[in-house]
Amino acid sequence: MTQKRKVEIFSAGCPACEETIALVKDLACPSCEVEVLDMKRADVATRAKALGVRSVPAVAIDGKLADCCAGRGPQADSLKTAGLGQPLS
C-alpha cells in the first residue's frame, strides 16, 4: 500500500475558502489525499482548534498547520491598539 500525504483544508464555504480549495487541489500530487472539512461541524471545529487554527481558510499537512496558516486571527493586544474598548474623546 502506498503512503499518502494527508492534506486537510478547513473551510467555511466562503469565496476565500473556495479559492484556497482550488489552489490546494491544483498543487496536490497523486500521493496527496486532500480532504475539505466544514468548520460548521463540531468535530471539525474541535480538530481545527487542536491544530491551532484561528481563522479560515486553513490548511494542515500531515497533521501540522501549514506555516502560511499559523498565527492569524484576532489578537487582543492588536485590537486594543486599534482602539477597541477605548471611548472616543
From TrEMBL:
Chain ranges of the Thioredoxin-like fold domain: 6-78
Residue ranges of the TM segments: none
Protein name: Thioredoxin-like fold domain-containing protein
Organism for this UniProt entry: Thalassospira profundimaris
Taxonomy of the source species: Bacteria, Pseudomonadati, Pseudomonadota, Alphaproteobacteria, Rhodospirillales
